[in-house]
Design brief:
This protein is an all-alpha fold. Helix content is about 80%, strand content about 0%. It contains ten helices and no strands. The radius of gyration is 18 Å and the shape is globular. The two termini are about 35 Å apart. The relative contact order is 0.23.
């Protein structure tokens, strides 16, 4: 079992890592701006599930195989980069069309939340740097022969800390959505974020392992 000091230390490291600009940060930011607080929180939930998976598989040693295999790492990296660029291209197309609907129905909001959750989950799971991050972090908080309960506890702490930060981000950005829903502002944001996402996807694809 983790001590209180270890829990707080691990949570702090996870929050700091989550705050750094990257694909996860960008997905929550965009969905909060474009679709509101609910979509932002849904994205945060998807990312948190991805973090739980990464923390768990790292603790049992599976993620180490990915990091050790250059081929597997490259495949996951390229798929993640393509997915990120795909989302960016969709944002650019939306900015070009500019046909935003201000008040989608409840069913559309539910579908939007599911899409946002899926985007958060896939963006996180398709980022092999998450494997590298957790491989460096997790062993410092596990004994040489960790129990199943201790492994699960560590994954839960990572998940809650990550979710805590991204929910705060979603609520903060969502509170300003009345500004972002103006058509000209929305088009400018879609154009900027779409360009940034495509550029980030290209950078991830081209960088060396």
């Amino acid at each position: 079992m983790l001590s209180l000091t270890e829990i707080l230390t691990l949570a702090g490291v996870i929050v700091l890592g989550s705050m750094s600009p990257g694909p996860d940060f960008l997905i929550v930011l965009r969905n909060s701006v474009v679709s509101g607080r609910r979509a932002g929180v849904a994205s945060a939930g998807g990312i948190a599930v991805g973090v739980f998976v990464w923390a768990l598989v790292t603790a049992i040693g599976v993620a180490g195989l990915l990091a050790a295999s250059a081929e597997a790492y490259t495949v996951v990296k390229l798929v993640g980069a393509i997915y990120l660029a795909y989302i960016g291209i969709r944002a650019l197309l939306a900015a070009r069309r500019g046909d935003y609907r201000p008040d989608p129905g409840a069913a559309a909001n539910r579908r939007g939340a599911l899409v946002a959750f899926r985007q958060g989950l896939l963006t996180n799971l398709l980022n092999p740097k998450c494997a590298v991050f957790f491989i460096a972090l997790v062993p410092q908080f596990l004994p040489a022969d960790p129990s199943a309960l201790g492994t699960f506890e560590l994954a839960v702490v990572c998940t809650i800390a990550n979710l805590f930060w991204f929910v705060i981000l979603a609520f903060g950005v969502g509170a300003l959505r009345h500004v972002f829903t103006r058509r000209r502002v929305r088009r400018a944001l879609d154009a900027a974020m779409g360009t940034f996402m495509v550029g980030l996807g290209l950078r991830i694809a081209m960088e060396s392992n």
